[in-house]
Amino acid sequence: MIGLGVWQLQRRAEKEALLARLAVNRDLPAITFPRVPLGDDLLFRRAGALCLQPAGWSSEGGHDARGKPGWRQIAHCRTGAEGPGFAVQIGVSGAPNTKPTWRGGRVEGYLAYAPDHQPLIAGLFGRVPRTLIIVADPPLAGLAANPPADLSSVPNNHLAYAVQWFVFAGIAAIIYALALRKRG
């Protein structure tokens, strides 16, 4: 358990370095998306892409730039034979059954994690890279603005986990000492 606590402290340092990198990303020049390879180090970077045509739509619960609850409207775009498709969150609507009329075109915004429906327990046993999407800025006309890039959306709870493991180790030592005392 002490080893796990030390490991979490090491992970904390790694996460703080990543968060510092992400803070810088917001001020870097825009990149063309989709770019391969994609990684967490591109999160919050300004990006642009050309959506030839939305191949499909989805909506996810979320909130707009003012914090009002709504439905994130996500277009799944074709880019043609020259590369992989991508997703773009084009804005936030007040109803889940909103059907945007957007037919594609140039989009600008920042990179964020796409909605992920992987169960928490599955994430513990395998590290699957999360997919990035463009969060459009400005949004499609008629939809509410997307929330801005937010560093607080990237969890950094490694210190709490480290403390938890050290407390578990301390409790185990106390139980062991009590068992020895009762035996003797």
From TrEMBL:
InterPro entries, alphabetized: Surf1/Shy1
Membrane topology reported for the UniProt record: Multi-pass membrane protein
Presence of the UniProt keyword NAD in the record: no
Residue ranges of the TM segments: 159-179
Keyword presence, Transmembrane helix: yes
Main location: membrane
CC terms in the record's Gene Ontology section: plasma membrane
Top-level taxon of origin: Bacteria
Keywords of the record: Cell membrane, Membrane, Transmembrane, Transmembrane helix
Family designation: Belongs to the SURF1 family.
Protein name: SURF1-like protein
